[in-house]
Design a protein that fits this description.
5-stranded antiparallel beta sheet, disordered N terminus, 8-stranded antiparallel beta sheet, globular, 6 helices, alpha+beta, about 300 residues, single chain
Amino acid sequence: MLLRSAPVWLLGAALGLLLLRGFSCGSSKHSLCYSYLQVSEPSQGLPQFLSMVHLDNQPIARYDSLTREMEPLVPWMEGVEVKNFLEPDWVFRADLESVQNEGLHTWQAILGCELREDGSREGYFHYGYDGMDFISFDKETLRWVAAQPQAEKIKEKWEDDPRWSQGNKVYLEENCTEWLQRYLSYGKKALQRSEHPVGKVTHKTASDNVEVLICQAFGFYPKEIQATWMRDREVCQYETLHRNVAPNSDGTYYVWLSIDIDPKEKDHYWCRVMPADLQEPLVLAWKEEPDEKLQHP
């Protein structure tokens, strides 16, 4: 659920990115997420420790063990002190070293909070080891959930320390949400902007009887969007393959969705993209390019 394997993580560290697998920082209305990576041994000049701060799924600041400075990644973070950044020794407690073997290994942690559409709050704290789920915190019960046999002893030790669990609960429910709201106020102008999507439809041949239409919409903000394939006036809900909305490097988002069709029916399909702030949808359909006409006289 958490993170990818060590080689990918090392590449991610070099690029200043934290790649998540199956867990998204920012799946609700607003979110603040801290992602941490620690490598057991320095390698190829890459940082041994890397952390990134995401607001609403967009990276806003990063820190690594080489520079030892918090670097803003968006203009409105210039001059803003990053609070609630947790030190590596606090996140990766010495207890975790007891399960680490010789060689190159990675520890990962993701913690943060969310404000949902209905006004409710959520908080999470997950650990990963070598790309696998390891242990996670349940703030409602103050218990730790072990995902690996090696985590059982750590679970027992942490649950015997009520101050550690209670401190995590306070952090997730109070401190984190307080700073989420502050960062939202700091970046209000940037976060409230509206960028309309542009898009296109491409196609590829899967077999003699199957063709794949791919709808791409990109450059939009905010991230809330509805995208569907239509056959004439009917929504192709179950036939559509969706990819999650993902961030671009410029702070906007993109999404794509595909559908398998009978090539003879191609003119009956179109893609409907509806951003949250648009009254009229963006309608996209496949159009034969001039070079394709030359190939198919």
